[in-house]
């Protein structure tokens, strides 16, 4: 974090930030473009049953968030961040292109997940290297980066979804591969704007008292377990919600039926619109001394996601066996996205805040272990879609998210205590991290 600031080129930020968010923007384009098509492709072309498709989706997303745990360690100790990004991006691009070959489905999914393991934890961990520790622009860096990567997630379902549903699934998967390759080319072209990387080194001995290190580990474990429960509900957005949109929602707007996959663009679009409004609200609350704590925000986020599924349950109930109006879908995405913004950036921020020196990528990767477990659980929960009525199914999802909210709220007091100790030790500003660091809507 001691790198000399680079010349400004976008919103007063170093040019290296533009390189990083453009790289991740195209990675998000490739990931969300492929994800928007995956369940439809398996159920309509490969003729997999719904339960099998749900399990494969769950195992794939879980594996994609397990590999960063290994990849982050490899990057910290041996490869370094830049080489890890380059290798990871190249492997992911190859995997996306293999998705266009029908017999290569499983191998392609495994290849994408392996490349993601090197790429995912190392790209955002380079942002701090662009700034001196006292640079006043640093708090805004993650906000600029966050908006940039969501542009890719917004465009992906529109482009890949349109190509896949109109011309054939292989065209959509191919477009995702082109997106990943574009991100790699931009990253290579922008190397001169990124600061020299420190040599990878063995982790430093933690100088904190042993009980504090143990308490921190237990806290992160507790948060991880709560988020694992939450993700079992949250991850249905790319699984059973995709099926609900396709089969149970009237998607005719202005006399034209909009493809189901294209509706996935609502989530990142709302992220871009709502994020600045939400940050402004939190700042006003902080000025008045009324801002919620980090864990309270996360609990509120889980409750909002629960409310979004109750809204879908109501849509199913009022439709009386027919198709629900697309406005119900819009309401779902709005509430779901606000809940996501309350919980996921703050959770990742806590893990990044408590990372030991020179283990930034590894600790951030540990956050993805919760996503791994939650994705596995989501795949199994999704199997209920074919076994119970849809109203009951969405009520179950709401109950799971509510249980996670209760778990998160119970962790509020120990989290405040440990973060206060961390502030005293390192003098960092938690608010900067919690407001700025974000998952791209994968986490």
Structural commentary:
- α3 (81-98) packs antiparallel against α6 (169-189) and α7 packs antiparallel against α13 (390-410).
- The chain has a single domain (16-195, 212-436), classed as Up-down Bundle (Growth Hormone, Chain: A).
- Helix content is 72%, strand content 3%.
- The chain has 15 helices and six strands.
- The chain has a two-stranded antiparallel ribbon.
- The protein is globular, with a radius of gyration of 21 Å.
- A hairpin with a 2-residue loop joins β4 and β5 (256-257).
- The chain starts with 7 loop residues before the first strand and ends in a 7-residue tail after the last helix.
- By secondary structure, the protein is mostly helical.
């Amino acid at each position: 974090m001691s790198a000399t600031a680079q010349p400004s080129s976008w919103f007063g930020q170093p040019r290296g930030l533009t390189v990083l968010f453009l790289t991740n923007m195209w990675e998000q384009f490739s990931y969300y473009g492929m994800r928007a098509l995956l369940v439809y492709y398996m159920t309509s072309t490969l003729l997999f049953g719904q339960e099998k498709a749900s399990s494969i989706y769950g195992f794939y997303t879980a594996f994609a968030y397990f590999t960063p745990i290994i990849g982050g360690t490899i990057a910290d100790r041996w490869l370094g961040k830049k080489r890890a990004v380059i290798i990871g991006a190249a492997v992911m691009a190859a995997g996306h292109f293999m998705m266009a070959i029908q017999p290569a489905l499983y191998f392609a999914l495994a290849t994408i997940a392996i490349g993601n393991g090197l790429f995912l934890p190392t790209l955002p961990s380079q942002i701090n290297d662009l700034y001196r520790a006292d640079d006043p622009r640093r708090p805004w860096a993650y906000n600029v980066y966050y908006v940039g990567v969501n542009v890719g997630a917004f465009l992906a379902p529109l482009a890949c979804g349109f190509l896949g549903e109109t011309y054939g699934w292989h065209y959509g998967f191919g477009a995702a591969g082109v997106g990943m390759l574009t991100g790699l080319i931009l990253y290579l072209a922008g190397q001169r704007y990124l600061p020299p990387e420190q040599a990878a080194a063995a982790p430093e001995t933690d100088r904190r008292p042993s009980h504090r290190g143990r308490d921190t580990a237990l806290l992160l474990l507790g948060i991880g377990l709560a988020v694992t429960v939450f993700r079992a509900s949250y991850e249905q957005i790319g699984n059973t919600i995709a099926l609900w949109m396709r089969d149970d929602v009237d998607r005719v707007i202005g006399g034209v039926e909009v493809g189901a996959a294209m509706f996935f663009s609502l989530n990142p679009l709302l992220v871009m619109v709502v994020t600045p409004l939400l940050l402004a609200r939190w700042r006003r609350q902080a000025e008045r001394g009324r801002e919620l704590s980090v864990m309270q925000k996360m609990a509120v986020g889980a409750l909002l996601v629960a409310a979004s599924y109750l809204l879908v349950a109501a849509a199913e109930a009022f439709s009386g066996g027919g198709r629900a109006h697309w406005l119900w879908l819009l309401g779902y995405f709005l509430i779901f996205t606000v809940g996501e913004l309350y919980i996921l950036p703050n959770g990742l921020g806590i893990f990044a805040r408590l990372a030991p020196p020179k283990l930034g990528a590894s600790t951030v990767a540990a956050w993805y272990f919760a996503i791994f477990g939650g994705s596995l659980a989501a795949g199994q929960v999704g199997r209920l879609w074919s076994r119970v009525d849809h109203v009951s199914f969405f009520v179950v999802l709401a109950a799971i998210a509510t249980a996670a909210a209760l778990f998160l709220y119970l962790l509020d007091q120990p989290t405040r205590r440990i973060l206060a100790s961390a502030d005293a030790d390192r003098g960092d500003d938690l608010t900067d991290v919690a407001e700025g660091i974000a998952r791209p809507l994968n986490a």
